[in-house]
Design brief:
Strand content: under 5%
Transmembrane segments: 43-64, 71-89, 157-180, 201-219, 239-258, 265-283, 289-311, 323-342, 348-369
Largest sheet: none
Organism: Shouchella hunanensis
Distance between the termini: 31 Å
Subcellular location: Cell membrane
CATH topology of the largest domain: Growth Hormone, Chain: A
Number of strands: 0
CATH superfamily of the largest domain: MFS general substrate transporter like domains
CATH architecture of the largest domain: Up-down Bundle
Keywords: Cell membrane, Membrane, Transmembrane, Transmembrane helix, Transport
Shape: globular
Membrane topology: Multi-pass membrane protein
């Protein structure tokens, strides 16, 4: 299993944490050096999400046409090209290009790797393999945090370092995975079949959207909460970020828990943990705040790993379709949630907003979950 899981973890770490999420950590120094304003920075940052969404739309089609290994290689290549472009950026357009290309890899990697796990792992190891691969985001966050702390003013050097790591990971993945051909090449699903597939995954999509919506306030404004409400230093807020990443590694255990107590109980139990961690951030004590980060990081990665497992059970032969749809719903929820949260924080407060978002997330507890495979794509 390690021959599949370890390079997969590395690819997720590169495409998610380094190529997509690290931009926001370097944003203040990056925009200052390039003489960009806040509006420019926000617009460029949004391109990463646009690229992620576009890649998710295309991923299932690409996998059916060229195979999951080639799509995984494309994901790694876009990460390398995007990171190099960011490291060498000297203008708004140059930086925009880099962020957009870098963001594509995250939307391609997860569906491709879930398909690889299905093809290469024994059936009893697929759940655990997928959830461990998904925890790669956490390993990436653990690495990017110290880099930001040590080289925050040398952002070009940092992105060159990320590009070198991404190149090594790309080569590792090329050498580790055997070639996989197209899946159902030439088969074009009709509108009716696509409607049926989406209908089969409707509860997964609702749960994914709900998690994206409720967790968005934590991802987007968690560090701002600490600095604005508690006067946290930049170092303290970065430690907070690294703790989220470190705890996310625990999310790799999702596959084992799902096999022990079932998909439904695992989802509800860990969702309560995540929502509780959001409430804990309202208590102004360092131990509670850092415990909140640990619980949130572990629970979030756990739940996204659970969604991958859920998707593979709905679409047994083409799990990449379910993963693409689930992560797309997750991303839409995060985008909408961040917009709403920003407005609420301006009109209310951080504390009230975090409380309301955690209460909204409780709706996810009533989402029904089927433990049976329900694939009927023909």
């Amino acid at each position: 299993m390690l021959k599949v899981v370890l390079p997969g973890i590395a690819m997720i770490a590169v495409t998610y944490a380094m190529a997509r999420l690290s931009f926001g950590l370097f944003l203040p120094d990056l925009t200052a050096d390039l003489q960009l304003n806040e509006t420019d920075g926000g617009l460029i940052g949004s391109l990463g999400y646009v690229a992620y969404t576009l890649a998710l739309f295309l991923s299932a089609f690409l996998i059916t046409e060229v195979g999951s290994k080639r799509v995984n290689v494309i994901a790694g290549t876009t990460a390398v090209v995007g990171l190099v472009a960011i490291a060498t950026a000297h203008s708004f357009l140059h930086l925009s290009f880099g962020v957009f290309i870098a963001g594509l890899g995250s939307g391609l990697a997860s569906p491709a790797l879930s398909q690889q796990a299905k093809l290469l792992l024994p059936k009893k190891q697929v759940d655990q393999g997928n959830t461990w691969i998904n925890s790669g985001t956490s390993f990436g966050l653990i690495l990017t945090g110290p880099v930001v702390l040590l080289f925050t003013e040398q952002w070009r050097l940092s992105f060159w370092l990320f590009a070198c790591i991404a190149t090594a990971v790309l080569i590792w993945n090329v050498l580790s995975f055997p070639a996989t051909g197209p899946t159902n090449r030439g088969k074009m699903y009709t509108k009716r079949q696509w409607f049926r597939m989406i209908s089969q995954a409707r509860y997964l999509l609702i749960a994914s959207f709900g998690l994206g919506m409720s967790s968005s306030v934590y991802w987007t404004f968690g560090r701002s909460f600490l600095t604005a409400e508690y006067g946290a230093t930049a170092t303290e807020s970065l430690v907070f970020w690294v703790i989220i990443g470190m705890a996310g590694i625990v999310g790799g255990l999702a596959g084992g828990l799902i096999q022990t107590i079932g998909l439904s109980w695992s989802y509800r139990l860990i969702l309560v943990v995540l929502l509780s961690s959001m409430m804990m951030l309202n208590l102004p004590h360092s131990l509670v705040v850092f415990s909140s980060a640990a619980l949130f990081g572990g629970a979030y990665i756990f739940l996204t790993g659970l969604f991958i497992v859920w998707a593979t059970r709905i679409y047994e032969t083409m799990p990449s379709i379910g993963v693409s749809l689930s992560f797309l719903a997750l991303g839409v929820g995060q985008s909408l949630g961040s917009l709403v949260a920003g407005k609420m924080i301006e009109s209310m407060s951080y504390s009230v907003t975090f409380t309301l978002f955690s209460l909204i997330g409780l709706i996810g507890l009533i989402v029904p979950i089927s433990e049976r495979n329900r694939e009927h794509l023909g």
